[in-house]
Amino acid sequence: MPDLLLELFSEEIPARMQAKAAEDLRRMVTDRLVAEGLVYEGAKAFATPRRLALTVHGIPVRQPDLKDERRGPRLDAPQAAIAGFLKATGLAALSEAKIQRDPKKGDFYIALIEKPGRATIDVLAEILPVIIRTFPWPKSMRWGARSAKSGSLSWVRPLHAITATFGLETEEPDVVNFSVDGIETGQTTYGHRFMAPAAIQVRRFEDYEAKLLNAKVVLDPERRKDTIVTDARQLAFAQGFELVEDPTLLDEIAGLVEWPVVLMGSFEMDFLSIPGEVIRATIRNNQKCFVVSDPKTGKLANKFILTANVETADGGKTIVGGNERVIRARLSDAKFFYDTDLKTRLEDRLPKFESIVFHEELGTQAERITRIERLAAEIAPLVGADVTKAKRAAKLAKADLLTEVVGEFPELQGLMGKYYAQAQGEDASVAAACEEHYKPQGPSDRVPNDPVSIAVALADKIDTLVGFWEIDKKPTGSKDPYALRRAALGVIRLILENGIRIHLSSPLIATHFDRIAHQVHLIQLANDRRMERDIGGHVERTGPPLPLGVGISSRQPDLLAFFADRLKVQLREQGARHDLVDAVFALEGQDDLLMIVRRVEALAAFLDTDDGKNLLAGTKRASNILAIEEKRDKRSFDGAPDPALYSLAEEKALAKAIDQVKTEAGVAVAKEDFAGAMSAMAKLRPAVDAFFDKVKVNDDDPKVRENRLKLLNQIRAATRAVADFSKIEG
Q: Which member of 250, 256, 521, 654 lies 3.0 to 4.6 Å from 687 by CB, making a disulfide possible if both were Cys?
């Protein structure tokens, strides 16, 4: 079957837009083909700095013929309804319609509509211009004389040529004839801007890709990336270095060149006195170049690797020299920034935070730092951190935000704080916490394990969550402008991966809620006074400042529920069953995340055994019976059953097993031995099985019936020592 080749040739397409544009082109064309009844075999899109290209394989030559049977009005319908039916179906007269007999509903007209399929090339000529005109570029422009006309094409950069061919592999393809904004389709494209700018005549994709390669254009971005990274590694290796891999930068560079030529440059050794991350950020951000390291020391070498878009007669010497001049100037700036920063101690920068607002309802950065410092000191004993060091780290952790280097390279915040703390002689744990208190910033980010870093990281994230919860700025749907989901996940990972015991409903967090609520109240009063001065009138105030420790906030349970939801997401992503998570969270007082996870793990292991599966079935049967009878009697069956009413051995055996299990499971849970609690639960299984096999729950004697229902309720109560079995599926 025939193939489609489509190329949209333009000026430079921004690298950051290329991958999505290629996918959009593939999706839009193939979706329309399918909508037109043209099912294809395969499609692939490509992007270079100057073109978007698409090949679609195995498209039928024609659309299938369509036959449709459309039901019309009844034979005795008003004339207007019949006229509308004829117009809608395209029938010239009622004689062209058929009649469908229906003894119950009456006889109806039926129109048999046959629509012959069109040639695929005609369909393409209709849909492709629409796709080009409606292409979803994030930013687009108009250009030239035609831009003054209404409806002129808007494209990411000026569009110069459209190649569109369709045909069998064994035959000369046809041009899909259409025009967009005066640009006629054809079979002409162009090679590399400098090395092969002449026009190229192409026929189909294989011919097109090969001719572009001869014209110094590598069409496939993945092939360009492979060339860049392979040549860069080899060039570094030949000089005794190792390439510092950077996948994000590699993607960007591949979008900047059509013919990658990898070269190496150098800079003065003196610049290596700057932290390696600053050198890398400078070279990466300004010149889109890779850095290399010395494999013996692991430190950066005074070399960089650039990717040119052209082969030159001098072997790239001019290009390398130009890049070296720019990089030398940028590194000089970076060194000046770094040396200037070292002249001021971190704590001496802190007064500037008093005039920098963190959030209009939560106060200044200085006030926030004070809160974090206090909270870190309270958390420190819980995580085994030195209180003095935790306070010091919390005090200094944000100071690098005011440095020159971080102002130039915001992505280095935290890291530069560590370097500056080390330079002024701070304790190693304090310096590490300056960097690590932001971590983890995502599911793949490293989790700190130094106790001081953990204390400050938890304090920073908890203060963020409590603060925005207190002013009711919680995430909504897909919107999370303050990254609160990420902060909660960070708290969860810090706790779980370090084996930390913190109760999220503890007085510590309640006090922090109280502290922030008090501060929010003071800020509101200050705002009221300012408004009073501005308008020269009276503003109704909410009252005098409330003292600390009076339970100002009631939002802590809501935040705990948010943590529960985040933990469920985290555990599900790790493969845990969602119903087991719900079964544990259904118990009251579950706010120790580490213990919740251990319960879930023990429960999952137990339910994988025969005892676990059978006990679950028996417990669910008991719960179902109780639910039915409680609904019928409109009351619950709480309370201890009366042993005097036991008439069967199975009742007595079950009661004895329940008492034994409740004791053993309770002791195990108190020791946080959840596997032991599950083993105790397993002892219920034979007694429960025997009870349901031999005992009639709804006995004719009302007292016996009530007593047996109370016994079933004891099963439910016993299993709740570890989880709410009613929440478990299966």
A: 654
Any idea which fold 348-571 has? Answer: Hypothetical protein af1432 (1.10.3210)
Cα-trace Rg, the chain: 36
What pLDDT is attached to residue 514?
87
Give SS3 for 62: strand
Q: Who's near 84: CB < 8 A, 6+ residues apart?
A: none
With 0-12 CB in 10 A as exposed, 13-18 as middle and 19+ as buried, what is 679? Answer: middle
Please report, as a single letter, which amino acid is at residue 631.
K
Contacts of 173 (CB under 8 A, 6+ apart): 2, 3, 5, 165, 166, 167, 203, 204
CATH of span 588-727: 1.10.730
Angle at 717 between CA 716 and CA 719, to 5 degrees: 70
Best CA proximity match to 643, nearest among 634, 635, 653: 653
Q: CA-CA distance, 95 to 594, in Å (whole number)?
A: 79
Q: What is the pLDDT of residues 692-726, one digit of tens each?
A: 899 999 988 999 999 999 999 998 888 888 888 88
**How many residues are given for the chain?**
730
Cβ burial of 702 (10 Å; 0-12, 13-18, 19+) is exposed
| Closest residue by Cα to residue 427 from 383, 384, 393 | 393
In Å, how far are 182, 452, 478 from 13, measured between CA atoms?
21, 47, 30
Sign of the CA dihedral with 421 first, then 427, 432, and 435 last: negative
Residue by residue, DSSP assigns 256-322 as T-SS-EEEEEE--GGGGGS-HHHHHHHHHHHH--EEEE-TTT-SEEEEEEEEESS--TTTTHHHHHH
Q: Which residues of 455-474 are buried (b: 16+ CB within 10 A; e: fewer)?
A: bbbbbbbbbbbbbbbbbebb
Question: Collapsing DSSP states into helix, strand and coil, what is residue 47?
Answer: strand
CA distance 373 to 460: 9
Per-residue model confidence as pLDDT tens digits over 632-689? 988 888 889 999 999 999 999 999 999 999 899 889 988 989 889 888 888 888 998 9
Distance (Å, whole) CA 193 – CA 212? 12
pLDDT in tens, 549-608: 444 456 778 888 898 889 888 888 888 888 888 888 888 777 888 998 998 899 899 889
Which tokens belong to 712? 């079933």
CATH of domain 3-61+120-214: 3.30.70
